[in-house]
């Protein structure tokens, strides 16, 4: 949709429509329609409601000050579950708002305990999924929470910045090799923080000096203690730890100097931009009025509560214009919709039906689904006839009226809008959109054919809905249509009540085929096999249980005479294991779709689930075509599974294109091992709509890990990091230097161990082995408007370039570089060339890659500069060119910075990678070097000239035998450091 088509006052106030209903009032910067939802499993506690309000009031002031008077929280809705006692002050709603809420109150994630966190799968400046906060955090807001976590308002603003503005943490974690909590730079150990002035001490939990391993990697068992200097306090950054008193601002490039060298996630993902630079350029901060006074910062609260007598509320708005007669569209719609209301919708769900062409008509008023109403609804659908123009605005207005019948609120309710044509009658979508936003209605759109309205994706985006698309030529069109209906309704159900799709396949049947159905141990309730066939009368269906016996207790049901739909119900609980479904046709060929769903046997079980979503619904560049699939088991992430996205393109006869998704922290994937698998789609086939269905397979190698990783959550294992404002007392025990810890800690405070940290302190992902399983999920569709030429898509940049080792031999300085290869086009295919450069001036190197000295083939000691296939790990050993070493000697520089870029066969480059830094005290004199006995050299330890001969003997023993040694680092010792700058 072109921006001009929605140039309405209310719509102009919107920002980041991916967040759904959240709006910003441009007159004063107040956020409106922020939704806080409480999970049904949370024990009723009035303190939770009271403290949500107290938290937002305090956080609103904190946010207002932190953004220099620009924005604040103005309008917050608290959604109370139906499992809580009825609240007189709460407005009734028929829908479950939890899955669409901005902040979700639920039981702890084992990864973080009661620490708030944000699920943030997208990149820099992109909106997150939600903020998670626990009941214990809220109920103990003014007691244990403040004592344990610091300022609760700080915590909420920290998470809001993750969620709304797409910034990342400016601290590291012990044991995170890419984002460590401590790192080496300029001869010291520093804290991974925005400000280099952040003071700290470091020791083990027993008070002993921390170990430092080869490459200057600080031990994962090293605990840092941070503190403020009351004489020169640090104000930033909010994206650092909330435990530091006095921090109230985001890190900036000017007054609150942003440390571009720190290996933080913010620097890595946002290309070293400060958090304030990202935030202030966010769409929320554009076109705002003058900052308002703090006295005007007021928060208004509204409570809503789901009724006990309804599972959810949906209106189906169905197109019956004349074009629906083409390609048997109306016939297919009637087939899918009839089966949906007859056999799929659960009892007590409120459903209304609106049909539209030149005008809109109510075919079925809002009615609770039961055995009687199902028949009436099916008859109403069966009597539909197509004729007339297309008035989508009419359908939307009429649907809202149906949702509000009887004085009901429409907040959180869903409209399923299905259309095959361009709107050509008033009112148009743009005219009705303000009403949809005011009523807080979600619109899921279903585009049928190639001529469906271009603005459907934007409509879904603006209202927090999902877009789906269908092609007239796809074989499983009725099954895909019903899948969209199911996806649009089940999101309103509690998670425990949602069926899980364990098989969804379309097959070309020649005579007979046996299809395995895998039912894992936690499933088996209400297991249904739905078969869609061109002719059920010609189809024979046979079911065998995992023991090989015919399922005599299974029921077989054909919806009605001439129906394409057959449902097989397996008695509950279904035996776990592999069932076999055999289909035999009497016809020559038949295209059959098989969809199998099941539910958890026990209500408190958490079976493995798959959720698929997209980065953008309107795609204008390849970077926007990103697919995500979250594989989880309750609060736990599922890792090492195989996830495939099947993409149906708008081009006929192409078939489905397969894209594998990864959870490795490179390419499109922001965070490794968080259970969210990601990849770019680059195989474009012209303009139009691309529909996405994902499949995950656990073949025995998948594991279930404790919790799931997000952004912002700083796990508190035993107690939070210690914080002190008593600088004098701390410095007295730590060092006589008044600047101790301000610019980093000297090496004499650490113990050097000549061993690789990966060997000494291996980090292993430990989890429970997952059973074999399969899951399917409909990700909806995205629309490409504006041809994307695949040949003009460059490779993705290298994101994890690092110095794996440094080597000295005969006066030559060498480094081992390691990285994950991108593809020819983003993270797909194989690129053609890798260009590596080195520099001693990071400032100029950051601005201009070409300022670095290129590494030639003659500089390669081991490995190659030709890239390997995408996502392959590549290592190359290179010597630093002599002219670079000479320049370093002349300028007395000790740091060597490396960066790389990748080129494809079309000559397109990826842009510069992250910078990897190899640091030396100074380039060692050539006469001090001696050939080493092994290629497994190790780190150079320089020594004073007076003991050169003794040092050579020691080095020969240490490096030749590769014996682990432990020694106290002395101030005069020359420790070779490797800093993995991101």
UniProtKB/TrEMBL annotation:
Keywords: Membrane, Signal, Transmembrane, Transmembrane helix. The keyword Membrane applies. One of its GO terms (cellular component) is protein-containing complex. Residues 313-485 form the VWFA domain. It holds the Pfam family CLCA. NCBIfam families: choice_anch_X. This is Putative epithelial chloride channel protein. It comes from Ixodes scapularis.
């Amino acid at each position: 949709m072109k921006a001009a088509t929605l140039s309405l006052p209310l719509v102009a106030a919107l920002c980041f429509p991916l967040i759904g209903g959240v709006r910003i009032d441009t007159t004063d910067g107040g956020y409106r329609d922020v939704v806080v939802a409480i999970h049904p499993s949370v024990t009723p506690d009035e303190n939770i409601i009271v403290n949500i309000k107290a938290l937002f009031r305090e956080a609103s002031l904190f946010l207002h000050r932190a953004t220099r008077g620009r924005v604040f929280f103005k309008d917050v809705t608290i959604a109370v579950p139906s499992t809580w006692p009825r609240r007189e002050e709460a407005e009734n709603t028929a829908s479950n708002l939890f899955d669409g809420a901005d902040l979700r109150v639920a039981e702890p994630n084992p990864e973080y305990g009661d620490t708030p966190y944000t699920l943030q799968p997208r990149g820099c400046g992109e909106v997150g999924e939600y903020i998670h906060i626990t009941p214990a955090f809220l109920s103990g807001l003014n007691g244990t929470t403040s004592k344990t976590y610091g300022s609760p308002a700080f915590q909420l603003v920290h998470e809001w910045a993750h969620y709304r503005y797409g910034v990342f943490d400016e601290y590291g974690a012990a044991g995170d090799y890419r984002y460590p909590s401590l790192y080496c730079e300029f001869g010291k150990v520093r804290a991974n923080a925005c400000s280099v002035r952040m003071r700290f001490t470091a020791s083990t939990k027993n008070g002993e000096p921390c170990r430092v391993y080869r490459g200057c990697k600080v031990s994962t068992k090293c605990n840092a203690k941070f503190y403020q200097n009351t004489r020169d306090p640090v104000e930033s950054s909010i994206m650092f730890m909330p435990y530091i008193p006095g921090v109230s601002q985001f890190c900036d490039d000017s007054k609150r100097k942003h440390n571009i060298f720190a290996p933080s996630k913010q620097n890595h993902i946002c290309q070293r931009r400060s958090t304030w630079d990202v935030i202030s350029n966010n769409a929320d901060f554009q076109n705002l009025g003058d900052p308002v006074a703090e006295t005007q910062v007021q928060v208004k609260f509204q409570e809503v509560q789901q009724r006990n007598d309804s599972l959810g509320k949906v209106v189906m708005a169905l197109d019956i214009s004349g074009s629906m007669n083409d390609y048997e569209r109306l016939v297919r719609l009637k087939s899918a919709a009839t089966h949906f209301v007859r056999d799929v919708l659960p009892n007590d769900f409120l459903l209304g039906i609106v049909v539209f062409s030149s005008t809109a008509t109510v075919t079925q008023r809002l009615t609770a689904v039961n055995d009687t109403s199902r028949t009436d609804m099916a008859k109403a659908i069966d009597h539909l006839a197509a004729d007339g123009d297309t008035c989508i605005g009419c359908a939307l207005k009429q649907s809202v009226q149906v949702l509000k019948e009887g004085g009901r609120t429409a907040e959180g309710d869903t409209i399923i809008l299905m259309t095959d044509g361009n709107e050509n009658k008033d009112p148009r979508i743009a005219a009705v959109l303000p009403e949809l936003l005011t009523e807080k209605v979600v619109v899921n759109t279903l585009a049928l054919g190639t001529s469906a309205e271009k603005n459907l994706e934007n409509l879904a985006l603006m209202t927090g809905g999902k877009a789906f698309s269908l092609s007239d030529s796809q074989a499983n069109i009725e099954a895909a249509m019903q899948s969209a209906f199911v996806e649009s309704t089940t999101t309103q159900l509690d998670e425990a009540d949602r069926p899980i799709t364990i098989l969804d396949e379309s097959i070309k049947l020649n005579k007979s085929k046996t299809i395995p159905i895998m039912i894992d141990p936690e499933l088996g309730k209400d297991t249904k096999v739905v078969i869609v066939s061109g002719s059920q009368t010609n189809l024979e269906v046979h079911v065998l249980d995992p023991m090989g016996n015919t399922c005599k207790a299974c029921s077989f049901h054909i919806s009605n005479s001439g129906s394409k739909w057959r449902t097989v119900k397996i008695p509950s609980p279904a035996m776990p294991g592999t069932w076999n479904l055999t289909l035999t046709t009497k016809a020559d060929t038949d295209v059959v779709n098989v969809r199998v769903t099941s539910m958890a046997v026990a209500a408190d079980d958490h079976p493995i689930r798959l959720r698929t979503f997209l980065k953008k619904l309107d795609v204008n560049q390849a970077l926007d075509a990103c697919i995500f699939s979250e594989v989880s088991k309750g609060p736990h992430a599922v890792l090492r599974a195989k996830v495939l996205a099947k993409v149906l393109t708008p081009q006929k006869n192409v078939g489905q294109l397969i894209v594998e998704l990864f959870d490795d922290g490179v390419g499109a994937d922001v965070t490794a091992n968080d259970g969210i698998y990601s990849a770019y789609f680059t195989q474009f086939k012209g303009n139009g709509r691309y529909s996405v269905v994902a499949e995950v397979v656990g073949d025995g190698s998948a594991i279930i890990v404790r919790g799931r990783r997000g952004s912002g959550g700083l796990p508190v294992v035993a107690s939070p990091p210690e914080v002190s404002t008593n600088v004098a007392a701390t410095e007295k025990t730590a060092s006589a230097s008044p600047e101790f810890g301000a610019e980093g800690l000297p090496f004499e405070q650490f113990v050097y161990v000549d061993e690789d940290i990966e060997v000494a302190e291996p980090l292993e992902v430990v989890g429970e082995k997952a059973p074999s399983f399969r899951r399917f999920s409909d990700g909806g569709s995205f629309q490409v408007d504006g041809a994307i030429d695949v040949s003009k898509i460059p490779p993705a940049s290298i994101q994890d370039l690092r110095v794996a080792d440094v080597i000295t031999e005969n006066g030559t300085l060498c480094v081992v570089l390691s990285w994950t290869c991108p593809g020819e086009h983003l993270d797909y295919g194989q690129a053609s060339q890798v260009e590596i450069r080195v520099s001693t001036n990071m400032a100029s190197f950051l601005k201009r890659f070409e300022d670095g000295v290129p590494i030639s083939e003659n500089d390669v000691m081991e490995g190659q500069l030709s890239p390997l296939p995408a996502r392959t790990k590549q290592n190359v050993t290179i010597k630093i060119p002599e002219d670079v070493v000479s320049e370093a000697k002349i300028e007395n520089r000790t740091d060597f910075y490396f960066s790389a870029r990748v080129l494809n066969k079309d000559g397109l480059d990826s842009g510069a990678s992250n910078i990897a830094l190899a640091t030396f005290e100074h380039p060692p004199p050539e006469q001090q070097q001696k050939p080493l006995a092994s290629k497994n050299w190790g780190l150079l330890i320089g020594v004073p000239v007076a003991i050169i001969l003794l040092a050579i003997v020691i080095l020969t023993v240490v490096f030749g035998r590769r014996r682990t040694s432990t020694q106290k680092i002395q101030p005069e010792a020359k420790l070779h450091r490797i800093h993995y700058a991101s």
